[in-house]
Design a protein that fits this description.
By secondary structure, the chain is mostly helical. It has 7 helices and 2 strands.
């Protein structure tokens, strides 16, 4: 006989799949942010999308460039990236986000096309631009650039 609690639990989010080892540095970054800006400050006013995307990108760039720890907070750059993503996700889910992203572009389609193997030289990009209505400049072999 199967325990009914087991079946009910399987239908719910499996939070145990989130690595506990990642939650600890994330909590340290959140503590640092609480000290600097106030606990749950992102709930008090709308969260601007580009503020957190830019912050996450700065931390990723620093990490990519070989710096593991943020010099200001003394915490992991990767934990800062996770904190930015968590705050932004919370804002989206709670409806407390100010979406100031630029108008939609074609990055997703460009990535899909590249994965699909259409990227023979720049044909895939030219094809995508034509399909989406973006102007495509064409030059003939006779055109000379000075």
């Amino acid at each position: 006989m199967t325990n009914p609690k087991h079946a009910a639990g399987k239908a719910k989010p499996q939070l145990h799949l989130i690595p506990a080892s990642a939650l600890i540095p994330l909590a340290r970054v959140m503590e640092s942010g609480a000290s600097k800006y106030g606990a749950y400050n992102w709930r008090g006013q709308p969260v601007t999308t580009t503020t957190y995307i830019s912050a996450a990108q700065r931390h990723l760039v620093a990490y990519l460039d070989g710096e593991d720890t943020d010099p200001e907070s003394g915490q992991s750059h990767l934990a800062h990236v996770a904190a930015c993503a968590m705050i932004l996700l919370d804002a989206v889910v709670t409806g407390n986000v100010e979406n100031d992203r630029p108008p939609p572009g074609v990055a997703g389609a460009v990535l899909s096309s590249a994965r699909a193997g259409i990227n023979s030289e720049t044909r895939w990009l030219r094809k995508l631009m034509e399909e989406t209505g973006y102007p495509v400049e064409t030059k003939s072999a006779d055109d000379k650039t000075e």
